[in-house]
Amino acid sequence: MKPGSLMAPEKAHLTLDVNGERIEVMFARHKTLLEVLREDLRLTGTKHGCELGECGTCAVLVDGQPVLSCLVLGLACAGKSIRTVEGMADAELHPLQRAFADLGAAQCGYCTPGFLLTAEALLKQNPKPTCREIEEALSGNLCRCTGYLKIYEAVELAAAWMRGEQAEPRDEVLYGRR
Amino acid sequence: MAGDERYGRTDGQTGGSSISLSDRPTVHPSNRGEGLRVVGQPLRKVDAVSKVIGATKFADDLMLPRMLYCKLLRSPHPHATILRVDTSRAAALAGVKAVLTGRDLPIPFGILPVSQDEHALAPDRVRFIGDPVAAIAAITEEIATEALDLIDVEYEPLPAVTSPIAALEDTDTPIHDYGDRGNLHKLINLEFGDVGEGFARADHIREDILFYEGSTHLAMEQHAALAEWSPGGKLTLWSSTQTPHYVHRALAQVLELPPSRIRVIATPNGGGFGGKSDPFSHEIVVAKLAMKTGRPVKCTLTREEVFYCHRGRHPTLIWTRTGVTKDGRITAMHVRTLLDGGGYGSYGVASTYYTGALQTVTYQIERYKFQGARAFTNKAPCGPKRGHGTPQPRFALEVQMDKLAHDIGLDPAELRLRHLVPPGSVTANYLQIGSMGLGACIDKVTAGADWKERYGKLPLGRGIGLACSSYISGAGLPIYWNNMPHSGVQLRCDRGGGVTVLCGSTDIGQGSDSILAHIVAEVLGLTLEDIAVVTADTDLTPVDLGSYASRVTLMSGNAALQAAERARDIIARHAAAKLDVPTERVVFADRRVFDASDPENGMPFADAVQTAEAVEGTIGTVGSYTPPMSPGRYRGHGVGPSPAYSYSAAVVEVEVDPETGIITVPRIWIAHDVGRCINPVTVMGQVEGSVYMGLGEALMEEMPHRSNVKNAHKNPSMLEYKSPTTLEMCDVVTYLIEDPDPNGPFGAKEVGQGPLLPVPPAVANAVYDAVGVRVDEVPVTPEKILRALKDKARGKEGRYGPMSFPDIHWPAPTVVPPPWEGGDGRAVTDIRHQGGRRKVSHPERQH
Ligand code: FES
Ligand code: FES
Known about the structure:
The complex is a heterodimer.
Chain A: H1 3-7, E1 11-18, E2 21-28, H2 33-40, E3 59-62, E4 65-68, E5 81-83, H3 95-103, H4 112-125, H5 131-137, H6 149-162, H7 171-175
Parallel strand pairs in A: 1-5
Antiparallel strand pairs in A: 1-2, 3-4, 3-5
Chain B: H1 48-52, E1 68-74, E2 80-86, H2 88-92, E3 96-101, E4 125-126, E5 132-138, H3 141-148, E6 152-157, H4 164-167, E7 184-192, H5 195-200, E8 204-212, E9 224-230, E10 234-239, H6 244-255, E11 262-266, H7 281-293, E12 297-300, H8 303-309, E13 316-324, E14 330-340, H9 348-357, E15 368-375, H10 391-408, H11 412-418, H12 438-448, H13 451-454, E16 462-472, E17 487-493, E18 499-503, H14 512-524, E19 531-535, H15 552-579, E20 586-589, E21 592-595, E22 598-604, H16 605-616, E23 620-625, E24 645-656, E25 663-673, H17 680-699, E26 705-706, E27 712-713, E28 731-737, H18 759-771, E29 774-775, E30 777-778, H19 782-793, E31 799-800, E32 814-815, E33 828-834, E34 837-843
Parallel strand pairs in B: 1-12, 7-32, 8-30, 10-11, 14-15, 18-19, 25-28, 29-31
Antiparallel strand pairs in B: 1-5, 2-4, 2-6, 3-5, 7-15, 8-13, 9-10, 9-12, 13-14, 16-24, 17-18, 17-23, 20-21, 21-22, 24-25, 26-27, 33-34
Bound molecules: FE2/S2 (inorganic) cluster (2 copies).
């Protein structure tokens, strides 16, 4: 790229459907969806750990499917519906968010948005996943804090809530084995 | 749970100690855990909601108007002299606003006062691939990146030191012009009693050599920093740092600004694990660029750059010789370590001491000798990673204990249980033990794993292994020696019944903000929602030294406890007058202040605050915490002492394919003595996270450098640097042991690091149980297991691991008689045998 084009790169002007809202946005054509979300729309809930497609931190839902936003061009998302962590809660937390908060599944919380959205996509497809299915679905998301265990528990708990069950965290999850 | 009578006892079960413990506090009534309402409850962390809705602002989430983007040019050479840096082409690029080189930031810095060996930008020499050389600030990240290519640097390569062994050789061009000898940064030689005589009394002696590979923190958040300069003369830096106080110091030093003109705000860290504990080049550079341009400047490191910043686990070679009696009592232990330090000092001097400090706090060791060496090499600098300097020697110790148990025909659990360090005792190297729940930890994990029925009895290819460990709850001495508190808290009560707690501590995901809220809510009878927590801001909050050494719960917790108790006392006095009851009868609970004997006679907490405020004015208090003096007085005693030691035990189950060496870990049982759970679900998270990280190190994590290709980092990306995903993570059965320590707030000790330590040795011990071979090296990979199996098939030992420890010319030892041999914590320069009697002379100068 020439220096001149860096100074005034050609911009795309398009309408994106983000969290159910149509938003007009103008951005340099080479920008990834991650960059458009964070820098142009200031939706910084979506994080990054590598920007190379290696960690899952930047996962968002595009047409309901988990996608690594660092690997997708913003341009490619015209006409698709994008869901970020900012779209999950209204006045109340989403059941997944509630379960993550209650069980300490978000320690530093940096990987959390990616996990929440990936788990949401899983539960939409499979409301009662086995532990193995949860592991498989989340295997592209790295978390360095939790060892994943509280995340599995939170997904199971939220899944039960979303099925309308009166579930509570297991004693062992909160206090350890006695 | 332990009885209270143990505290204040002056001797252990054996050996006894000449150190008086009378100045140790007795157990605080609240430490007994009676009537606690908030402490011990598994509540949501105070920042949990903002994290799950994506509202928490991490450093790179901050964007200011007119903000510039900074990029660093890094050295492509492992070791070279910088002959010339020409930035004119870069500066001329449209959109570039400022360029810096080493000349602009000539003052060195470093985390330790003894290792001020770093420059924000290398002025004349680069010491590893990735060492920063120049910096750009531009209106976009793309332009800044493009400008890097336009900086012309002429280097003259120097020979690169590729390993600590190579660093032992004499050299004309040492990597640094300071240190103990040539490329040896630090040499330590400490002897606690006559180990020669100790070995002579042993029934059995073994020597082992083990290696623990380096690994990195890999926090999910890449380091980022944003600086803003006000023309009024004030600098503000937001940074993902674990240690805002030390960044504050470094900025003042390098930028030559009064500290009062600098405000450092540590943003919530997206994971730290020790990797954000040093002041870093990019933090200083963005500050300087902001001062130069008058615009906010942000730098966010790429993942590759994070690998170069490193400060992770030191690759460490360990030689260890231990003598035991027939029943496994350790009569003498001698440990040597050689650490690969990389290109700079970082915390390395402390790391080196730590490789020899905590061997003594688990099993009784009568005589102990430690020799440690840290080498400079031309690689990414090593520093503190979770467990700081102790996982490597712990691996060696616990594997050797397993071998010793086999040698003398004792069950490994039994061997350990027989010789536990007594609570309240002082060790050979003068570490003061408080509560000690290791026995309970071993009992729990062995019962859980059905150890007695299964150890040594599983079919070929399946095995279980045990290991234990201990870790400090903060260091007894600060990095910069002084008499000031290590942690401070200010507390302010609002008329509406809310309470604000201000503390310099930094939440890196471990939940330190929540600990403050739990403790204050407990004392004042409030809920977490009533407490506002303000942390990690040098303009607003009293100093806390930082989130390292597992110090925060104990130290900021004690400071918060003191501040809250002082506020309670003020409010109680005035509430008592109004309620017409004696002050001692006033109780704080359920957001009310009332008479213990007549709970109806009371008032809401907010009314009590107003009552007090009407008389006293604003209700605000302070609290602070300084650790107790350690009994050690010898040179080098500063690393190891802690107000309290946590304990952990783990049993790991492995499956090993004897044909391929492929190893999987289905389950780990872990028990951790945390003293007291301030919040059990947070403690659980720390234990599980530590086990996870220990498993990663045990099985796969490593960051070697290519000695044949310019010492280049071999895997500076998340794809190549292997870490466990959900598919490699095992089941974990966690037991929380609460053996309250008199020094902890409500008895609490550390939990963030200790539970990592037993995992790697327990994996290695389990491999032996499964297939009968020893892998004396971390990570324990299929390839190494296979080579050990082949070794065994050839009728040899069945071992994979290092074969030798190099000869190192050690300095003369600092000799310190242990407490039970009449020592008083001071060193003597010489110890001589005279007809079996020891003559002690020349007390060494104290420092
Ligand atoms: S940021 Fe790591 S996968 Fe996108
Ligand atoms: S919670 Fe910190 S990386 Fe997952």
